[in-house]
Amino acid sequence: MRRSGIRGGKWLKAAAAACLGLGLLTGCTPAASDSQNGSAGAVCGAAGSETSAESEGGDSAGDSAPDVCAGASELEAPEAAAAAAAEAASALSAKSLPSGGEAFEAYWLASGGLSGPLGVPAGGATCELAGGGCLQEYSGGTLYAAPSGLVVRLLPEIAERWAATGAETGPYGYPAAEHECSTGASGTSCWQRFDGGTLRWREDTGVVDCSVLECVALTFDDGPAPDTGRLLNTLVDKNVQATFFVLGNRLGTKYAPEFVRADQLGMEIGNHTWDHPHMRNLSAQGARDQLARTNDRIAEAIGHAPYLYRPPYGEHNATTDALAGEIGLAIIGWDHTPNDWQPQSAEQLVDRTLQGAQRGSIILLHDLHSVTVDAVPAIIDGLEERGFTVATVGDLLGPLEPGTTHWTGSIG
């Protein structure tokens, strides 16, 4: 990925001096026992080390901001420091940015500027990404602008995994939303949605990369239902995410808020048709309506359409697969289920689930049944004790082509 644009040596110095005078950045305190230079010496020492490597090669584009750190050791009076900071801030705000830079600057300022999570701008914007996208780097992360104009910040750990897959030219494409996080009893999870799918990071696990981890996907059909909220609480407390294949006709019920909450907690949402028909018995138009109507209802509720579809009863054929593909859906089955719709105790359900699980399994469960929700804590514990990472279908399979069918993620 080519990254050209304005180098940030002088800009970093200006921002550091502004930090000094205005007290905006954490860490703008004097170095221990540096009584002569005070905070100016501490900040400029950092700025100097940051810029010395970049100054080699002489990028004249970075020379428009004044070198305020050059005489910082002489700034002993608060008035002088404030004056230098004002000069630096003026130079920073006057910095001309290439196309796309204005959007980055607006985002940066809205997020707190120098005192926000992005910190110091590390150069100018570049708009030479595939399709016309832009990026700008900061000391605390990177902003990306999709060709649509959406500007988002990538979580650094997720950004690294995204870059390894090809960044905007890879299967995930451009970022489609800000990263979000949730914290439960077992830790914190963060996720970021892209045009082609979602990448996730977990405390004590790192990025959920199922090409390396021993993943199994937990999936729940037929909700939202009375126990969906309780199931979500369990998943958050266990610090895992799962895939929910929802019925369109249940998204207008009193349980619909739990479906929205599932999306807000980083769960994956899939299409399970409108009212669970035998899809092969429907006309082409009838089958299309089942999928399109549900997709529309999901997108209306959570702001984005799903890209996964599970056919009721697992019944599908070339016609229904093609219809799903036209709507942008990949077809997802399963390779293991404890048959939780049959009468059984929670203990039996746990045993049957664990006995058949293997790396790459897509496990079918139903949040429609209370006994299933009762069993989920022990299922997750048992899978993790066996060395598995509980994941979503998207984690397990990655971005998928619409219209393709997938019944397992097993390797080998």
Structure description:
- The longest helix is centred in the last third of the chain and has 19 residues, at 284-302.
- The chain has 12 helices and 15 strands.
- With 412 residues, the chain is of the alpha/beta class.
- The model is unreliable at 1-78 and 84-99 (pLDDT under 50).
- Helix 1 packs antiparallel against helix 2 (38-55) and helix 6 (228-238) packs parallel to helix 11 (370-385).
- Helix 9 links the parallel strand 11 and strand 12 (330-332).
Helical residue percent band: 25-40%
What's the gyration radius in Å?
26 Å
Oligomer: single chain
Strand content: 15-25%
Shape type: globular
What secondary-structure arrangement, pairings included, does this model have?
Elements: H1 9-22, H2 38-55, H3 78-94, H4 101-110, E1 134-138, E2 141-145, E3 151-153, H5 156-164, E4 180-184, E5 187-194, E6 197-202, E7 206-207, E8 215-223, H6 228-238, E9 243-246, H7 256-264, E10 268-271, H8 284-302, E11 308-309, H9 318-327, E12 330-332, H10 346-356, E13 362-366, H11 370-385, E14 389-391, H12 393-397, E15 405-406
Parallel strand pairs: 8-9, 8-13, 8-14, 9-10, 11-12, 12-15
Antiparallel strand pairs: 1-2, 2-3, 4-5, 5-6, 6-7
Short description:
With 412 residues, the protein is an alpha/beta fold.
